[in-house]
From TrEMBL:
Pfam name, any one: tRNA-synt_2
Organism: Aneurinibacillus migulanus
Protein name: Asparagine--tRNA ligase
Record family assignment: Belongs to the class-II aminoacyl-tRNA synthetase family.
HAMAP family, per the entry: Asn_tRNA_synth
Reactions that this protein is recorded to catalyse: tRNA(Asn) + L-asparagine + ATP = L-asparaginyl-tRNA(Asn) + AMP + diphosphate + H(+)
Organism ancestry: Bacteria, Bacillati, Bacillota, Bacilli, Bacillales
Keywords recorded for this protein, A-Z: Aminoacyl-tRNA synthetase, ATP-binding, Cytoplasm, Ligase, Nucleotide-binding, Protein biosynthesis
Subunit architecture: Homodimer.
């Protein structure tokens, strides 16, 4: 019976067959211990010389790191094994004996590992991170499906910018200029006016020459937009969303989190409601702690980390100055110097994972913003139409997948949270 490591617990006492790769091997003379992986997990196969044919013993002995094979064996429960099970091998059928594998147990530099990213993702740690990434994606879809959201796909090629033209990748679109999308938000607002509550999940691109551990050139964003939803309700949806995702991973990925040596007690505490402070309160907090920052300046990574350290959950920073936020954000009716927005800052130094706001729904105010930000009226005419024909209060936000996965996994750098990261000066492999 061909099965997988993930399903092995259903076959205790039975003989099964696995398609696998040899992750590692050690021998005590008369016993060979095969560390096997099949993509769904890792398991040890034990080959006892006296219990197999000489040909089978030699076949097992010939296996090199990352050789592919079919292996047959009896499933046994074993409390010492990380998976809880072990395989008493009864058959070894090599498919391909791998050449000398470049990634070994010795210490490799980051650049070497990144050059061999196509092989590095086979390691236990990377497999755990990418497995958790997959679980986060699953949780995203389940959360929005349960709440009646429609999945909508905005374009990747766009004629205009969502937030500014300085961090865009330009391309030629036949006889006109186009850009790789840095956000699907504007299009999602249009979709929300048609379907009520929508979300997108796709790649976005930022041509930022940044080398920090939080930045990627190409990353994935979840961007919900919601008609008839004000700022306050949007915050409640955001904290419910993040809580749902974290608790989903805790429930479904215990082995992966253990493999990463993640302190799950910090994640278990991630449950709504989250603390909230205003931008003004955050500035006062930072100034009191000796940071040189003035009202009207944006936060950098050290500022976000300093604020997050004061809380044991993600924290919302709300009501940023109008001048440092995007043109589409709705001013606070009680104080037009700030907008109805919030950034959600993750604990443990992982920075902003969500940015969101209530959007401007007033036609005349949006026209004024076009003038203030020198936006091309022709290029943005369709976006202005949303305020002409049945405008309603609406809100939205964007969650960065890789930063969120990095925080949940406790990775040192966001490059580990995407299969093939695109970084400054790195387009290979």
């Amino acid at each position: 019976m061909l099965t997988t490591v993930a399903q092995i617990g259903k076959h205790v006492g039975e003989e099964v067959r696995l398609g696998a790769w040899l992750f590692n091997k050690r021998s005590s003379g008369k016993i060979q211990f095969l560390q096997l992986r099949d993509g769904t997990g890792f398991i040890q196969g034990v080959v006892v010389k006296q219990e197999v044919t000489p040909e089978m013993w030699d076949a097992a002995k010939s296996l090199t790191q990352e050789s592919s094979l079919y292996v047959t064996g009896i499933v046994r429960e074993d409390e010492r094994a990380k998976s809880g099970y072990e395989l008493t091998v009864t058959g070894v059928d090599p498919i391909q004996i791998a050449e000398e594998y470049p990634i070994t147990k010795k210490e490799h530099g980051v650049e070497f590992l990144m050059d061999h990213r196509h092989l590095w993702i086979r390691s236990m740690r990377q497999q755990a991170v990418l497995s958790i990434r997959s679980a986060v994606i699953q949780a995203v879809y389940e959360f929005f499906k349960e709440r009646g959201f429609y999945k909508v796909d905005p374009p990747i090629l766009t004629p205009t910018s969502a937030e500014g033209t300085t961090t865009l990748f330009h391309t030629q679109y036949f006889d006109e200029e186009a850009y790789l999308s840095q956000s699907g938000q504007l299009y999602m607002e249009a979709a929300a006016m048609a379907l009520g509550r929508v979300f997108s999940f796709g790649p976005t691109f930022r041509a930022e020459k940044s080398k920090t551990r939080r930045h990627l050139i190409e990353f994935w964003m979840i961007e919900p937009e919601m008609a008839f939803v004000d700022h306050e309700e949007s915050l409640r949806i955001q904290e419910d969303f993040v809580s749902y995702v974290v608790q989903y991973v805790l429930k479904n990925c215990p082995l992966e989190l253990k493999r990463l040596e993640r302190d799950t007690s910090k994640l278990e505490n991630v449950k709504a409601p989250f603390p909230r402070i205003t931008y003004t309160e955050a500035i006062e907090m930072l100034q009191k702690d000796g940071h040189e920052i003035q009202w009207g300046e944006d936060f950098g990574a050290p500022h976000e980390t300093a604020i997050a350290e004061k809380f044991d959950k993600p924290v919302f920073i709300t009501h940023y100055p109008t001048g440092i936020k995007a043109f589409y954000m709705k001013p606070d009716p009680t104080n037009p110097d700030v907008v109805l927005c919030a950034d959600l800052i993750a604990p443990e130094g992982y920075g902003e994972i969500i940015g969101g706001s209530q959007r401007i729904d007033d036609l005349e105010l949006m026209k004024k913003r076009y003038e203030e930000h020198d936006l091309n009226p022709q290029a943005y005419q369709w976006y202005l139409d949303l305020r002409k024909y049945g405008s309603v209060p609406h809100s939205g936000f964007g969650l960065g997948l890789e930063r969120t996965v990095g925080w949940i996994c406790g990775t040192e750098h966001v490059r580990e949270t995407i299969p093939f990261p695109r970084l400054l000066n790195r387009l290979y492999p």
